[in-house]
Amino acid sequence: MRKIIVSLLAFAGLTISFLSYSAPAKSIAESAEQVAPLLNGQMIPDVEVTTIDGGKESLPKFLDGQKTVLFFYRGGWCPFCNTQMGQLKAIEGQLKAMGFQLVGVSTDGPADLKKSIEKMDLGYQLVSDFDSTLSQAFGIAFFTSEKTTKRYLAGLNLANPLQKNAAGQDRLVLPAPAVYVIDSKGLVQFNYVNPNFRVRLDEQVLLAAAKAVK
Asked: pLDDT truncated to tens, each residue of the chain (214 aa)?
């Protein structure tokens, strides 16, 4: 059974799921099952993101002291990611009413982010993590297998460069899909990380988690 990593603040009406964690990884995991994500009660990292206009800005500055739902997805080429983005679009108004901004992070370059916003008519912000700096800092970056790397390179025009794994082999790096609920101080209050990219967080669970953040 694949490991599902979920961590919740205790709040009424929800069941807390948990398992033992290692410290957040600052390197790239050898597989999606080996990621070690940033945990509840930890501060978001002070690393740069690439904006949709191609500029660089630190993540704390970009979030600007606002409560944030930050979600990591693989890219606009992923149908499961697009489904999730549509589901988040449907609840964006409810999140805004609770004082949250919604920000998506993927390995897409700025040009492809713009295409996703236009195609899906998104009202929330997207930022590029084409070099996996942010997903590494959150402990959710991993090397894809040789088979997956070859398949994606053959069929997709990807912005993210190949990186060398522990064996010195060139691999694509992707984020394990993740959702973080972050308070106005930059503290993680909730996270959901699932190595199985086909399974995404239910939007009603996300709304309940956001509601619990003061």
From this structure: 444 444 443 333 333 333 333 334 468 999 999 999 999 999 999 999 999 999 999 999 999 999 999 999 999 999 999 999 999 999 999 999 999 999 999 999 999 999 999 999 999 999 999 999 999 999 999 999 999 999 999 989 898 999 999 999 999 999 999 999 999 999 999 999 999 999 999 999 999 999 999 8
Domain 5-211 = CATH 3.40.30.10: yes
| SS3 call for 115 | helix
**Rg of the chain in Å (alpha carbons):** 16
CA distances to 108, 121, 127, 146, 192 from 131, rounded to whole Å, are: 10, 26, 12, 19, 22
CA separation for the pair 71, 201 (Å, rounded): 10
| AA letter at 70 | L
Separation between Cα atoms, residue 89 and residue 206, nearest integer Å: 13
d(CA 96, CA 124): 10
Backbone angles phi, psi at 40, to 5 degrees: -55, 140
| Domain map (residue ranges) of the chain | 5-211
Q: Is 205 exposed, middle or buried (0-12, 13-18, 19+ CB in 10 A)?
A: middle
d(CA 58, CA 51): 10
